[in-house]
Amino acid sequence: MRQPRRVPWSSKAELAELYDLLFSPAANDESRAAGLSRMSVYISSPSCPAFMHILHALVSALSLPYPPPLSQSHSQRMVYALALIRFVNGMVDPLQTGGFARPISHLAAELNLPPGLVSLRHRATHEDLPPLTHLHRALQDALAYLHTYSFVPILNHGAEAGWGRRERSEALVGRWKKVMKERVRTRDVTVESASGRAIKRLRREFEGEDLEDAVEAIVRTGLVPVARKKRPGKKATAPPADALLVWTPLLSHLMSLHESTPSVLAETLATALLETAPRHRQLNEAETKELASYRWTLGTWLFHFWKGGDLGVPEDAKRDILARLARELVHGDDVLKRVYGALDGAGLAELQALLPEQEEEGLEGLDVDDDVNPDVALERMQANLDALEDKLRHKVESREEIAGGEEIPGWHKAEDWRPCPIGMWA
Predict the structure, then answer these.
(1) 232 touches 296 (CB < 8 A)
(2) Strand locations in 295-390, DSSP E?
(3) For burial by CB atoms within 10 Å, which of 110, 238, 253, 256 has the most?
């Protein structure tokens, strides 16, 4: 459907809140009532999209008790029927643009409307009212249709797609960096100054950005200073103080808009750390130092969010990130090993015991055996990697069991017991 140019909600985050109130797994009668109140404000605006009026009618009808008392059965059938008629008519009416009226069934087919809804609409309009169960199911199907074809596209819509969105996010990050660095330099904390008003405008612009695009731009182009002398040293485990003053307000603002900001931020930092590994590149000494400094700066930001606080990384995200980093330790990446050790020192000691020993001396003078089959060698390497991952998984599982397993007095676990589905032989 065509995206509305003017809308009654102030930001995409506000529309996402309405989506959570109506369609999230945790939605209940109370949240849907709050969503109805918000939609009542929206539909009073002339700029409200047509689908919002239809959505309000459907949610209002479905909020009635079902099944109703016998005395209210007929009146509820009429409410359901009217909501269904408004849904079908409201969806197809914008397509009646010719000089002659086209059949509603043809217009509905262009919109992928279920034919059953069109048939029930015709029956409810010109014949006896359909049964209450049929109407209730039809309203649920209509609500699912609006969710898929109207609400989600508008929620995910952006002015540009792909690289256009990324370039816009990077431009916003660049403007934020310029203004905040000037405020830090002049120690300006007022909101009525020119820089304060600029920051306020940038906050509103970030509200319209996708979280993933904004975080990607911040990590790739913002968190690491261009000058190497401004980056943290090899022994530092925290980002520079000036960088924290520049980026913490923006990240906290994104956190107020999206609860998943810490997880997305940590995952993006880990991805950037792994993708910039110099595994198959030939670099000179200066390039090696530059890349190591860049990656270590990313690591210090990951340490900062790992410790907790308002932007602390959730525990489930920590487990996933540690698993991703551990799988790459076999490549002998010094920066990655230091980062992993700072995040989980005990886990690094256990993993180093599993890794093959590496010779300290160089490989000069070693002869190549031409009789070695490369396919067999690759299979052995893959088998070793699989064995390492299996050992790592078992160690993590055993550690979690030890941490969470409290024996109940009078009970003990059988030595020969192993889990299996009910009804199957152990």
Answers:
(1) yes
(2) none
(3) 253
**Which residue has 């690591």 as its token pair?**
299
The conformation of residue 5, written as its DSSP 8-state character, comes to S
The structure's pTM equals 0.48
Query: How much is the CA Rg of the chain, to the nearest whole Å?
Result: 30
Q: How high is the pLDDT of residue 396?
A: 61
d(C-alpha 157, C-alpha 152), whole Å: 8
Pair of tokens at residue 305: 């969010």
- State the sign of the Cα–Cα–Cα–Cα dihedral 382, 385, 391, 392: negative
Which residue matches tokens 């904004």? 214
- Closest listed residue to residue 339, CA positions, set 236, 223, 194, 210: 236
The two counts, helices (H) then strands (E), for the chain are: 18, 0
DSSP assignments along 11-65, one per residue:
-HHHHHHHHHHHHSTT--HHHHHHHHHHHHHHTTSTT--HHHHHHHHHHHHHTS-
Q: Which residues contact 388 (CB under 8 A, 6 or more apart)?
A: 330, 354, 355
Chain segment 224-236, per-residue pLDDT in tens:
888 888 888 878 8
